[in-house]
Amino acid sequence: DRLQEAFERERRFTADASHELRTPLTALKGRIGVTLSRPRVRAEYESTLIALEQEVDRLIRLSQDLLFLARLEQGSLAFKPEKLDLNRLLVAMVDQLQPLVEAKSIEVTTDIPEGLTVFGNPDHLIRLFLNLLDNAVHYTPEGGRILVRAEGDPEERRVYVRDTGPGIPAEHLHHVFERFYRAQTDRSREGGGAGLGLAIAYEIARWHGGHLEVESEVGKGTTLTVHLPVRPPRDRSS
Ligand code: ATP
Ligand code: MG
């Protein structure tokens, strides 16, 4: 049964990945065809190229995410852990988000003890937390609140990213770590991503010997919790 499940997951992933790449490429091709169908003034070429560039940027991000996930799963990335100060790392990240959250009148608070360290790959941990913060900012409506809290015990560090957003319905909650899963029913591109952010965050946490959890209540908000072991997993350099 487990083999069958893994097989089905792979099949779905390949189908989703092809769909996610083909749809925007078909749209790009259509747009190019229409523009080339007759001579146009310079401004028209410019506006078409600007629109194409945005779509291409999205596709670049999508292929980078896919490549990164594949490498994480194959274990072909060098782990190279460093001792990192969680307070410094997270506060710097929250500072960078400031323009974005101010634009949405979202209040972000941090509660992170000084001197809490973690062993990890800085680039990838930043990516993990950024994906969680990005979701919190994106899905929380204007005037909402986000709390980034951390705590530690001798065994592990826990980082909580809590928001006062719409929450995720229970029937979707088990799936949010799946690749390409989006809880909103309409899969329109409007403001939405590919559905890879949490899958990547999940794999990064796992790669560090930790894990990621989600709790959510519709109408109240969502909390993502990252658990990271204090000691680095042994021999991850392969
Ligand atoms: P991407 O991160 O690839 O740009 P995404 O944000 O749609 O796209 P994920 O970050 O993997 O993908 O999140 C999966 C889904 O889980 C989202 O589409 C959204 O429906 C739901 N979700 C994630 N975080 C939150 C949150 N903080 N509040 C409400 N819903 C959330
Ligand atoms: Mg996301």
Describe the largest sheet.
5 strands, mixed
What topology, given as strand order, has the largest sheet?
2-4-5-7-6
Q: From the structure provided, what is the oligomeric state, counting identical versus distinct chains?
A: single chain
Sum up the overall morphology in one term.
globular
Mean pLDDT: 91
What's the gyration radius in Å?
20 Å
Write a concise synopsis of the structure shown:
By secondary structure, this protein is an alpha+beta fold.
Structure report:
- Helices cover 50% and strands 19% of the residues.
- With 238 residues, it is α+β, with helices and mostly antiparallel strands.
- The chain has a five-stranded mixed β-sheet with strand order 2-4-5-7-6, covered by helices on one side. A two-stranded antiparallel sheet has the order 1-3.
- Strand 4 and strand 5 form a beta hairpin.
- Helix 4 packs antiparallel against helix 6.
- Residues 131, 135-136, 139, 163, 165-166, 168, 176, 181-184, 192-199, 222 line the site of adenosine-5'-triphosphate (ATP).
- Residues 131, 135-136, 139, 163, 165-166, 168, 176, 181-184, 192-199, 222 line the site of adenosine-5'-triphosphate.
